[in-house]
């Protein structure tokens, strides 16, 4: 007799499936945290073994050298065991501290998973990624920085001005403000013999001042007290008409002239090393009026034009040589940016162009539509990013109010749009992560400068403001630079924030009395 068999099918419900997926995802996250812990332990163990290996090699070299020098003499007394034990104990403690500082905060993450309220946050579990820095604090200072600063007896940069003993440096008040006290140790004045200053360029602790009328240049080296430690004076020739000064190293720099000649100068000998005509082998005219930006990195020089629309890149030979040898052009690249709007007759304007974050790449900001385009040096399109702001920024753009600034340390791109709008694009996250609208009371921002994650903003009336690239929020109170602009002055404020003194950015300005004023940007 056959037995009736009924097939029982599992009954699936949406809540049951979601609960199962959430449970499995939670298990996966816990496993991942465990793997991260094991990975950190292995890295710490590898660092420990590498340290022991280096110590053993050092001891072996010392023993061998002592054996050679002490041949024929009596052997020295061995190191006491107590001293060796103390040394090993200190090394172990230091390694343990490094391991604890490098390890992720796993306890808090596990608590968030075990919490009763974690079910509502399971769709936001990407916050548990231990490789992602926190929005505040950890992006700037981590445990290794604290340990290194403690071992080197160096204080980390404070986020606000702290009072210090007065400096013997001759001090002149740079800022006139009522809601923030002056820190005289961070303000200084450097005297220049130039009748006026038209260009300021800085690199490391070196500062270059250029007078376009006398064709004269001064190179200052600024010490820790913000005094001019040494001054080099150079005459660049009466036929020079400089539009850009770019640093190769602390001992050499190049200048770009309106005639598109590139000249390399030596600071040590105060002389011209080489003179190149960038368009000597080019059939296409490239006038100075077409140029919207000039950028230089390593051995690559980029000049972007707005009317072609075309970008030219030169690979410079011998530019990285330590000796004062002439440079040459090894290769020339031409990149054409075309409109691809489905046969539209509307022109695509290049608003700005800079060298990219990777080798042999460039980043281009264009309008119609507003987008970022990344090319390689062969003209191949690598990526196109639509900024989705055409409805906000309508009309023909003003090329002088659109700029790109790249921070290679954090892989972020600062975009200045229509003067007062700021965007931050993250290459790591592949999206725009920050937006900010500057709202000055009476003037429009005219210049931006980015250095070490600090944005220096100059306004028409002489005000300066500093913001962090991490959140675009003001870092310190707004400063008003005294006597920068008078009512008769025309043109932008001449300034630079790329000078570094004791690993701290320094703002350089020139006032109407032709005085060079320095102020440490204490963030």
Automatic annotation (TrEMBL):
The keyword Coiled coil applies. Residues 153-186 are annotated as: Disordered. Residues 32-73 form a coiled coil. Keywords: Coiled coil. InterPro entries: Striatin_N, WD_repeat_striatin. Residues 13-67 form the Striatin N-terminal domain. SUPFAM superfamilies: Putative isomerase YbhE. Residues 163-186 have a biased composition (Polar residues). This is Far8p. It comes from Saccharomyces paradoxus (Yeast).
